[in-house]
Write a structure and sequence with these properties.
single chain; Urease, subunit C, domain 1; 17 strands; alpha/beta; 19 helices; 479 residues; TIM Barrel; binds zinc ion; 2 domains; 4-stranded parallel sheet; 9-stranded mixed sheet
């Protein structure tokens, strides 16, 4: 199958020079990008008879598909449930955990399907999902009909709090925590063996753990070692807020990244989700070890994590750390929209540091595409539009008020456009979103089912009551 998309107003290749082609064409052959260049070059190199399909892109612009470096598909039914005045640790321990404890396998499946439809509508073609609390096959089953690409896993933890807080039950704790690191790692290894490379390579499975207080040091380090042995990655939450860093410092005398590194756990195949509370020395350490960071701007803003005040993301990028953008789950961030993350990150550091040339639109686009792909260790196939890579891309409708008029497509993309002008999303050489619908699923049915299941899960978890804690002392001592 050969498709020509010609006369495109612009193409962001996001190659090593950030080349933007004006009046360009591309050739898609099966699942790959077979050629890309100026329209007259492509016309000269290919006979029109050789195409099965020719699309006129005259009023369209193209961008690589966005790569979401940190998402929780299992959390999608919890949109706008938890209050927005919670700091990270109370949010996790007293709201997210009870919610997770009452999410069934059916909830996870429909939640994942719902989240994937939102991502494809927002131009996200690949993700790193923290994973299922039952079995990664649930997420992969949801990915299958939608055509999306992604990495998932079995979200694991092994460190119970000394006392169960209000809202938690013994049964919930048994369900949520493995008895020790070794039993967790055994299950995680089985998951990778079973699911890595599923859906003809569109789905990958990693050794994912929750990270921070609910995981032992042995599990943090063991996950990285196991992932290395299996040739995959691992991701976990770490240094997610200043509160977590302070609890860590009180208990262990060091901040979270240093603690894990002192035990040999910070390596190339680790993606640290958030990484907000990081010292200058830890920025250097991340660069030396080659570890990556998934930065989630919306989640940081909503939960007051401190990215604007103390985040060192511009310094990480300058030091050569791979920094991708993540949405986090919908209850943490409110949305799975990477264009919003791009807009925020292209402004927050300029404003915070009173400096307009820091983390610019160019860097924001790189973080949402090629740097995300590098974070996911998948940049040999995705993240930029170059010959031989997978045909994962987005088309914008330029006959849209958001693009009228524009001179510099990059500024228009980051500061003017929203997902409202995305007209098509392609993954693996196939149009998976277009004509206002995500193909392969009955979206109306997904939304109906999600509304019903979400309402029931909130009541089961007791989160509709007005006595749920909004501060926490959990894990402050012991463990
Ligand atoms: Zn997260």
């Amino acid at each position: 199958m050969r498709t020509l998309i010609e006369n495109l107003n612009f193409v962001f290749t996001v190659d090593s020079n950030d080349t933007v082609l004006r009046n360009a064409s591309i050739v898609v052959e099966n699942d790959c990008l077979a050629d890309i260049g100026l329209t007259n070059e492509i016309t000269g190199r290919h006979s029109r008879d050789s195409f099965d399909n020719i699309i006129d892109g005259a009023m369209m612009g193209m961008c690589p598909g966005f790569v979401d470096s940190h998402v929780h598909l299992s959390e999608t039914l919890s949109r706008a449930v938890f209050p927005d005045n919670l700091n990270t640790r109370a949010w996790v321990f007293h709201w997210a955990k009870p919610f997770y404890a009452h999410v069934t396998e059916e909830d996870e499946y429909w939640g994942a399907l719902l989240g994937i439809t939102e991502m494809l509508r927002c131009g996200t073609t690949c993700f790193l999902d923290m994973g299922s609390q039952y079995d990664p096959g649930i997420v992969i089953r949801a990915m299958d009909p939608t055509g999306i690409r992604g990495i998932t896993g079995r979200h694991a933890a092994d460190n119970r709090p000394a006392e169960l807080p209000k809202g938690w039950t013994e049964q919930m704790a048994d369900h949520h925590f493995f008895p020790d690191a070794q039993s967790a790692l055994k299950v995680l290894e089985d998951c990778v063996t079973k699911y890595n490379g599923a859906l003809d390579g569109r789905a990958r499975c990693w050794v994912n753990i929750e990270g921070k207080e609910p995981c032992t040091l042995e599990l943090h380090v063991g996950a990285v070692e196991l992932a290395e042995r299996l040739g995959v990655g691992t991701t976990y939450h770490l240094a997610t807020s200043i509160e977590e860093a302070k609890v860590c410092e009180n208990k262990y005398g060091v901040w979270p990244i240093t603690r894990i590194d002192n035990a040999g756990g910070v390596r190339k195949n680790l993606v640290i989700a958030h990484g907000v509370a990081v010292t200058d020395d830890e920025v250097k350490l991340l660069a030396e070890r080659g570890a990556a960071v998934a930065f989630c701007p919306c989640s940081s803003l909503k939960l007051g994590k401190g990215a604007t005040a103390i985040g060192k993301y511009p310094e990480m990028v300058a030091a050569g750390v791979r920094v991708g953008l993540g949405t986090d789950g919908v209850s943490a961030a409110g949305n799975m929209n990477l264009m919003r993350q791009m807009l925020i990150v292209a402004g927050m550091f300029k404003d915070a540091r009173l400096k307009a040339d820091i983390f610019t639109a160019r860097q924001a686009l790189r973080a949402a595409t090629i740097e995300g792909a590098r974070t996911l260790m998948w940049d040999d196939e995705i993240g930029s539009l170059e010959i031989g890579k997978k045909a994962d891309f987005i088309l914008f409708d330029l006959d849209h008020v958001e693009w009228t008029p524009f001179h510099d497509p990059l500024q228009a993309l980051v500061f003017s456009a929203s997902t409202a002008s995305i007209c098509q999303t392609w993954v693996n050489g196939k149009k998976v979103y277009g004509e206002g619908q995500v193909y392969g699923v009955d979206e109306k049915e997904v939304r109906r089912k999600a509304r019903d299941l979400a309402a029931a899960a909130v009541i089961r978890a007791g989160l509709h009551k007005d006595d749920v804690d909004t501060t926490t002392t959990l894990y402050d001592e012991g463990n």
